[in-house]
Amino acid sequence: MTVYLGRARRGPSFTLRPTLRLRLTLLNGILLVGAGAILVLLAWLLVGDVMHPAVGLQPGSTVTLADGRSVDAAQWQETLVDQAAREMLAKGLAALVAIGIIGIAGAYAVAGRALRPLHTVTQTARRLGEETLDQRIRYSGADDEVAELARTFDAMLDRLAGAFESQKRFVANASHELRTPLAVMRTEIDVTLTDDEADVAEYRRMAKVVRNASERANGLVDALLVLARSEAQSGRRLVRKVPADMAMSVTNALSAVKAEAERLKLDVTTDLQPAMVVGDPSLLDRLAGNLIENAIRYNHLLGKLWLRTETVNGQARLIVGNTGYEVEPGDVPGLFEPFRRGGWERTGSRGSGLGLSIVRAVCDAHGGTVSAVAQAGGGLEVMVSLPTADTTPVVAASASVPRAKGLGIA
To answer: Do the beta carbons of residue 276 and residue 315 sit within 8 Å?
Structure first.
């Protein structure tokens, strides 16, 4: 029987921790021996009740034994019952011991066979690491609870592998995006400093390039912080929940990019009806701002931009559509991944590629959904759907300061 030695926490002492296999074996053994003991006891008690060969004889009758002796029939019956009870008890206990040993050994073997996939799960978990997430159990036994556990474990490993791979890509892309403006700043500074004939105008030009690059790096860092903040509050674990109108967020975001829209001479159409939700207003403002900024950034001269907010079937909707560059329908889901720009994935393109990924994270934090449809003539229409304020409770933060004792503070 296998036992695990518990790790000593203090001093050299340790404790024995029985395995699940041992506990199942002991349980089966106790049940088997207990049932056998009850049967032996019942048999022993029934012997005296069923053995009455002299009941129908006359009082004073005698029985002649094989050796020629004659004994009283009642005495002979008593002796016979006692002897039968002793033999039955002795043989029953011997059989019980034999059955118990065989049953416990069989239970130990059966439990070991049944729990073998669990040992496989344990060994696989011990071998797992960032470089070995491709290993799976791939259980092929009976479709029972153990098989369900193995499938669940394999599915969890698939999710972990996907998360690690996504994290690696995210870190690599973030490093690349940050390296670009830093490299631009360093190159401009080095070139200008090594130029002995550089004048004030050259230094001013260098300062403008460095400022633009620093603004780009700062914008990327801000976007990363917003993305991290949004993903940390996923699953409706918002730190702040107050009533907010998405129509107001759209109005504020549209006013912030009004100059850019006028520069491109966009035809802006709005239909802003009240769309009350409960959530973090700053995140909702960033959601609307990112959608509108993307709709303008990837639009073209004399293009169109349409905005609509509404409430339908307990869902507050925000729809932002634009004309612009053609997007393949198969590429639409990938646009919500970090650092994806929909055909503009190259150094020097405007934006950090985090706009729609922030939108997705904010929607998830508010318990909503986001979808996008590629337009036939080019452009994209994005629809955000969040639960309305009627279906979402408002969490009012409160704090109390306990009264200090012995300080005379009222």
So the answer is: no
For 18-56, letters b (16+ CB in 10 Å) and e give ebebbebbeebbeebbeebeeebeeebeebeeeeeebee
d(Cα 379, Cα 298) in Å, to the nearest integer? 8
What percent of the chain is predicted at pLDDT more than 70? Answer: 79
* DSSP string for 240-279: --EEEEHHHHHHHHHHHTHHHHHHTT-EEEEEE---EEEE
**Mean pLDDT estimate for the chain:** 78
| Three-state DSSP class for residue 239 | coil
Query: Residue length, the chain?
Result: 410
| Beta carbons within 10 angstroms of residue 409's beta carbon | 8
| pTM tops 0.90 | no
Spatial neighbors of 387 by CB under 8 A, at least 6 apart, are 277, 278, 314, 315, 316, 366, 367, 368
60 vs 49, 52, 63, 75, 378, CA distance in Å? 22, 16, 10, 10, 120
Residues 6+ apart with CB under 8 A from 331: 342, 343, 374
Element (H, E) at 145: helix 145-194
Crossing angle of the two packed helices 145-194 and 116-127, in degrees rounded to 10 = 10
Amino acid at 209: V
Burial class of residue 392, CB neighbours in 10 A (0-12, 13-18, 19+) = buried
Residue 81's Cβ-count burial label (10 Å; 0-12, 13-18, 19+) is: middle
Strand partners for 309: 272, 318
The whole-angstrom separation of Cα 227 and Cα 110 is: 52
203 has a pLDDT exceeding 50: yes
**Cα-Cα-Cα-Cα dihedral sign, residues 81, 86, 88, 89:** positive
**Cα–Cα separations (whole angstroms), residue 236 to 190, 264, 287, 362:** 49, 38, 16, 10
